[in-house]
Specification:
The structure holds 2 protein chains of 2 kinds. In chain A, about 40% of the residues lie in helices and about 15% in strands. Chain A is of the alpha/beta class. Chain A has a domain of about 260 residues: Amidase signature (AS) enzymes. In chain A, helix 4 links the parallel strand 2 and strand 3. Chain A is globular and about 65 Å long. By secondary structure, chain B is an alpha+beta fold. Chain B folds into 3 domains: about 280 residues, no CATH class; about 110 residues, no CATH class; about 60 residues, Arc Repressor Mutant, subunit A (Orthogonal Bundle), CATH 1.10.10. In chain B, strands 1, 2, 5, 6, 7, 10, 11, 12, 13 and 14 form a 10-stranded mixed β-sheet that branches. In chain B, strands 4-3-15 form a 3-stranded antiparallel β-sheet, with no helix packed on it. The model of chain B has no long low-confidence stretch (mean pLDDT about 95). The chains are: A alpha/beta, B alpha+beta. Chain B: Heterotrimer of A, B and C subunits.
Chain lengths: ~475, ~475
Amino acid sequence: MADLHKLTISELTEQLASGTCTSVDIVNDVLASIDATDGKVGAYLTIDREDALAQAKAADEARAAGSQLPMLGIPVAIKDLLNVKGQPCTCSSKILEGYIAPYDATVIAKLREAGAVLLGRVNMDEFAMGSSTENAALGKTSNPWNLDHVPGGSSGGSAACVAADEAIASLGSDTGGSIRQPAAFCGCVGVKPTYGRVSRYGLTAFASSLDQIGPLTKTVKDSAILLEVLCGHDKMDSSSIEMDVPAFAKNLSNGTSLAGMKLGLPKEYFVVGMDPEVEQSVRDAVEHCKSLGAEIIDVSLPNAKYAIAVYYIIATAEASANLARFDGIRYGMRIDGKDPIELYGKTRAAGFGSEVKRRIILGTYVLSSGYYDAYYLRAQKVRTLIRDDFTEAFKQCDAILSPVTPTPAYKLGEKSDDPLKMYLDDILTTPINLAGNCALSLPCGFASNGMPIGLQIIGDAFQEETILKVGHAFEQTTEWHKKRPSL
Amino acid sequence: MKYEATIGLETHVMQKTNTKMFCSCKCEYGAEPNIHVCPVCLGYPGALPVMNEKAIELCCKAGMLLGCEINPYSKWDRKNYFYPDMAKNYQITQADEPLCLGGQVTVEVEGEMKTFTLERIHQEENAAKNTHIAGASLVDYNRAGTALMEIVSNPCMSSAADALAYMAAVKQIMQYGGISNCDQEKGQMRSDVNVSVRPVGQKELGSKVEIKNMNSFAFIKEAIEYEIDRQTALIESGGSVVQETRGYDPDRGETFTQRTKENAHDYRYFPEPDLMPVKVAAEQLEQWRSELPEMPAPRRDRYVAELGLPEYDAGVLTADKATADWFERAMLHTKNAKAVSNFIMGEMMRLLSEQDMIISESKVTPEKLAEIIALIDAKTISTGAGKQVFEAIFNEGGEPKAIIEAKGLAQVSDDSALDGWADEAIANNPKPVEEYKAGNAASINFLMGQVMKASRGKANPGAVMQMLKQKLDA
């Protein structure tokens, strides 16, 4: 084994270009790595071995014919809520058992056009509802750094497979932190793009006004490469923006200076109850950015404290409608009844897990006649205030630094009986989804128990280039991202 | 005590778009079930709606034709309910910001001009078609997601006659404007009718009953009349009307309870996050306004004032836009409006009806009819021969002149030919000749008929009459 699975997109692209390896070699190494460790990690739900090797062979042939596509021959794992034509798309739910996607999500089509090899689909919290990948009906995923710990969620499989070198990169989705938090828990890089940057067509919707697809990778540069492939207007998604996609990867200079850059530090983001090791690592990271020439200023996000409440009203309201289509009539699980209503009831009772049911009920409640104004409408107003906070803050700084999570990855089962406690862990990530802007998570340290700690770099809407630049400079001058878990 | 009814209509009209409201599936009535479907209209995971701009155009134009104000900002909402005819289990519709606001329809009801006002028109998507068979239900999603407008009137009508006149006017305007074919048998126009009854003089409206989903004018009339009687009888007998949703059973001629207020749906409307609000640019609206066709009422008035047609003719010609358009195309080639009108109302409508055709399918083109009329006016053929030519072209196609020649229909005014036929008729029919000479002027008509018969209809009737008179009066 040539250890190709341990390399990054940019390293492998160089090797492929110089002919020192083939895509088939890479896929073989990655498949061997999966065979060696996924029994412990449990990142994958389905692995498309033969199909992946066939794609790799085609990529090698294309390269021989002169193709230089940005992801040519690079194997990527897919969060199992993205439709991949001809493959299952379970959303880690029993209710989608037997469903085979009849079409490619736009991001999947873009990956194919960019030459990527689709490896298979990875685990997640059911319908992306959760922060630990413990709400998964079809498999259990562990944190590669310590198998007794959660990988985070909902894109837990996407983060775990990259951290465990079981994929070179992966796609996740982020509704309230579902890319950034598992990236932080597993010590990899994850980007939540600006709402509207990446088409949601083919992403099984959790909360339509918050969901974004993004990359999980081993380095910031890899995220830039993958993000560039994913972005762009799509006529199939009315919320996607007609805007040119910057050359994210090419524009990342090798310079490590942050001179002239103002980085904001929101005082509200160092919350009571924050793990002292997390706080220290992030404060050290801030100092490091200062040493690279950045000016650190205090900013305020006064309404951030309402984010959890607002998030769990808006997200569940949208989800209650989005998940109504899973009814046993046209696809997936069906448990028959004497009439459609009984069929729906039986199918949904058996098909959905308890967290999904909890959120559907909550969302149905907040939209109900007599409660709408007090909950949903009020939440939308506060959402505007949260967005205004960021608008004000970005008048003073280029990017905002913060922790991603209040604690490092916790143990499996530790919070699964207390949903509210788990919801509160989203306090630092949900405001970004509510505001619609972009953020990046990258490794900035380790707790004394060996679990990774993440730094969140928050950018204004459509300022992905800025956060990638800060992240890249930080990464080039630190060693955190080079540490790998021993499995 | 006397009672009065208050009626309001919610009329669903399927727009004439090529593709569905939020996906690019084709709209086709009567196609094999479930062939015009895709992940979007089947509500598959991850599929997203994209607005059909043609539907927005048609809805705005409908609003303009009905005198609505076009809302400068309208938006989409989700209406949540579970039923197999709605793939997503929510319908995309417009709750609080519809595309068109206000509006009115002025129409004659039993000899009186009445104006009925509209509350709004909103755009939404259609449901699939459910068919219930023994032991199973079948769902055809071809119709799911097709463009549907809901035209909501105010509670401003007071009788079945009002409602029917309103519906007929709306239908005619929608057809005229090219908004919808409004083919009720194909479900392209369906109405929910709200009916309440109160004592005359009472200010507040009585409890409202909604009768759902009727597509036939006859059933709507029966249902309204039944419901007014039922509610009046209920109130008179000391009872009270329950606010509820009812259906109409045409076999029994009765309405029946479907859903009471306690069991009413909570649709949990909220803004559709997958679609952006709609703001139509002022220039776009002006463009659409400039494309609107003339409506039947002003068109009818114009035919009377400018073309000198009788009111009756103008009404018949403008009742259907295709007919009126055909009429006007013919008028580009002739000045004889009454003759064109006579042919359309006579031969054309008779033949179309006999052969179950529509005017656009006629082999007689407006140009050809104008030519036939010109030949009649020039006395080349008689009016009767003109009708023969019309029917021949209608059935077989061809050119008027060639048919006249082939059938020998040209009129004969030549004295030598007429002279022989006239002498023959006088010689062979002594009795009418005697009667004429004795003062019975009408007897000449018999002789005239004989000449026409001998000429096989080709003789110029005026010339024949003149010649017979000459010979008999001499």
